[in-house]
Design brief:
Layout: H1 3-23, E1 26-32, H2 33-43, E2 47-53, H3 66-72, E3 77-80, H4 85-96, E4 101-104, H5 141-158, H6 163-189, E5 195-199, H7 205-210, E6 213-217, H8 227-239, E7 244-247, H9 254-263, E8 266-269, H10 277-290
Helix pairs in contact: 2-5, 2-6, 5-6, 6-10, 8-9
């Protein structure tokens, strides 16, 4: 084989390998399923998203599986969002993949304290000395718009050759978020009275704040209410004509069922970790409106 032909074959092989490398999607990892929705909206087919907390699991007590740690070793970016399991595991993720860029999306927004449950038959306002930041920032569209900007910029930094695509996708997604926000505002704006809803776990505080609602939680920090607290909650719910209690699939519904049974209320599901983020917020808004007090 001539030197020219050998050089030609090597050139073609190099171009082929380069094409495959360039076509490989950027691998990123996120904590929860709704984040996958956001990253795919901006990254599209240019990114492959690994999710740590799979459907049915709780981000409060989650422990990654060995297979997920292997996938993490190939990720360029980890998008954290402030859920409890991250506190213990993010340092381990960094140790397992020293090249991993950890982006804290929760740092780009102002967080509020977790809402406490009912005390002595009354809704508790404010927060205790043991401040706990509410991690459920993905349930407020205006906050998602802010976090999406950070996602866009992080993808551009890791994959600058596709900057135009990431920017274009971000602007399209930002428009969808604004449209969703206006829809949700319209859902509640014609109500003749303040809307409040009772939930087992206080996941919907940001959603309630943005749309002028009041969340009434049963538990805090994953702790079941004591018998005395249960009696107070039942009394409060009965006096305030609570017709439905919202639960999420990741938490026990034992206490919620006991309260609902005592006051003749319905048990309804409102899942803050649903994959279809936008449609889930639309459906949840309708459920809150139809079963508020």
């Amino acid at each position: 084989m001539s030197a020219y032909k050998s050089k030609f074959i090597l050139t073609i092989l190099f171009l082929f390998i380069s094409t495959i490398a360039n076509a490989a999607p950027l691998q990123v990892t996120v904590s929860i399923v709704p984040q996958e929705f956001f990253v795919k909206k901006i990254g599209g087919d240019l990114v492959k998203v690994n999710v740590m907390v799979r459907p049915g699991s709780s981000p409060a007590v989650y422990e990654p599986q060995p297979k997920q740690m292997t996938q993490l070793s190939h990720s360029a970016i980890y998008f954290a969002i402030g859920v409890p399991f991250e506190q213990a595991w993010l340092p381990r993720f960094k140790s397992a993949n020293t090249n991993l860029e950890i982006v804290h999306l929760n740092d780009s927004v102002v967080r509020q304290p977790m809402q406490e449950h009912i005390h002595n038959g009354e809704e508790h306002h404010g927060h205790s000395e043991n401040y706990i930041a509410d991690p459920h920032i993905w349930l407020a569209p205006p906050l998602v718009r802010i976090m999406s900007l950070q996602i866009r910029d992080s993808l551009i930094e890791a994959d600058p050759q596709h900057e135009e695509i990431y920017r274009k996708n971000y602007y399209e997604f930002a428009g969808e978020i604004d449209e969703l926000d206006h829809e949700l505002i319209n859902v509640f704006k014609h109500s003749s009275k303040p809307q409040s809803f009772m939930v087992y776990h206080p996941s919907w505080g940001y959603f309630a704040r943005v749309y002028g609602l009041k969340q009434i939680p049963i538990e805090l920090e994953g702790k079941e209410p004591s018998p005395k607290e249960m009696a107070q909650i039942i009394d409060f719910a009965r006096k305030n004509s609570v017709s439905a209690i919202f639960i999420q699939p990741q938490f026990s519904k034992k206490s919620a069922q006991a309260i609902a049974s005592s006051i003749g209320a319905k048990i309804l599901v409102a899942d803050p970790l649903a994959a279809n983020w936008d449609e889930n917020l639309r459906e949840t808004a309708k459920a809150f409106l139809g079963n508020s007090r």
